[in-house]
Amino acid sequence: MQAFYTNSFLMNSMNFILLLFVLLVIFHYFLVYKNNLSKKAWKKVDYYWLGVASIGLISLAADVRINVAKKFISSEITYANTTLGAVKIITDNPENSHFCMTLTKMYSSPSDFDDTELQYQLGCKWLKETSEYFQKVQKNEVPDISFEDLPPVTFDNVVLNKDVASIKRWLDEYQIQLGVLKGTKEAAEPSGFESILFYFAPFLLCIALALRITKVTGEIRHET
Q: What pTM does this model have?
């Protein structure tokens, strides 16, 4: 019930003008008219109202960070998917890839033809398994994929190794982008302390303003 009334107060910004007026009346009564503080005491009031205002400023700074971070999340996701898209191009449709091409042995074939054919067979099997793995994890908007998650490479061929190296390079860059995206999402969420200040910052600023205005009145009374 208390949270409801607090939220109801926050829903109308004019309530803070009323709160400021009430605080001005209270501070003027107790600090000025009932017993005006000394000139030295009014100097010390600067520490109080500036301190209260600084605490309220933390919430405003956090709000700026959160809004900016939220705007960057979509672009970070797009960049991550673009990076992962390069891997998808290589792994999609493995049957049509050079990994799975059929080698025909001829009389002029090199002596290591059988070994080369075996390497391509192993490479084709690896690409098909990798393609199946990608189809499973791509259900998520930004899946957590690294090269270590792929099936182990059991072949060793100069041509195929270049594509494997390219996949590893893209996935390494994708992991870096996931780290950036994670940091951006964390920046878009307030900490526990910031969440508390989010509600109390307007009240703190009202207190700071009321103290500052009351200080002016108190100092003027010393001069008259």
A: 0.71
